[in-house]
Amino acid sequence: MRKKRILSGMRATGKLHLGNYVGALENWIKLQDEYESYHLIADYHNLTTNLDTAEIYQNTIDMVIDWLAAGLDPVKSPFFRQSQIKEHTELHLIFSMLITTARLERNPTLKDQVRDLNIENIIYGHLGYPVLQAADILLYKGEVVPVGEDQVPHVEITREIARKFNLQYGEVFPESEPLLTKFPRLPGLDGQAKMSKSLDNTILMSDGPDIVKAKLKKAVTDPLKIRKGDPGRPDVCLVFTYHKKFNIQDEVEDIRTNCSSGALGCVDCKMRCANALNSILAPIIEKRKYYEANLHEVKDILNDGEKRGRAVAQQTMSEVHEKMQLG
Ligand code: TRP
Known about the structure:
5 strands, 54% helix, Rossmann fold, mainly alpha, three-stranded parallel sheet, globular
């Protein structure tokens, strides 16, 4: 049976944190055998909230190294930059005719960004963020889009645009489905709902053991557990959320029991969490070192992915042109 096709991507955000890993990358890696996957570096999307492009290239390389170090296989799943495949901008333009501004203004993800970043006047390209994303997905006929919850509205817009195109010009595009991760959102070290670079509450995938320990030391815990001996409430504790995600089952049960009884203090609990995390990160950091020392390989991987991505994109655009009777 034909494998279904995945298209997913991330903006070029630089070194990834554990929230990116849990929310997306880990899932991409798990799915790469079952699906035919394509992974995009959405560098044009960066411009919607930051016009300064001086660091985009370095951020791209840093992010791609994290993808590789964590085990995303570029032979199975080509990686490419949006900016290097011109068909993205062309399909974006065509799609921009197939959706109203009122529909885009209702996008809840946009509303959240406007609030979080205190944006007073939205630029045209930011309003069109999901239109470019629809072009990203549909250029590769992505049927399955593994993303976090905040991206579901964008996949819905993608489906609407695909339907509209197919109705107007003839069947070219699939109706893409989002695929949510089981562990959609990792809270930050300060207890905020989201781990995010702009909130400065992250642990990076590239943080070494001492940094992980130091960061966890400062993590918030159950505010009612003030000293060792006080019974704790694992279910409201951020550090316990990390244990549940990153530690082995037996340890998690042991920590639950001993935190609740008061036998386990927060300092010890945090060190056990650091150990669990560090054992997951150690092999990733090792591989990262290899790619940092062999940057030409990273560049070759991108070039190869861009060639393979471009071939698919060009094929789709020739179908688009034919249906639209352009050219
Ligand atoms: N908007 C996505 C995010 O911020 C990034 C993205 C761009 C994307 N194009 C995509 C995700 C296509 C999935 C598919 O996470």
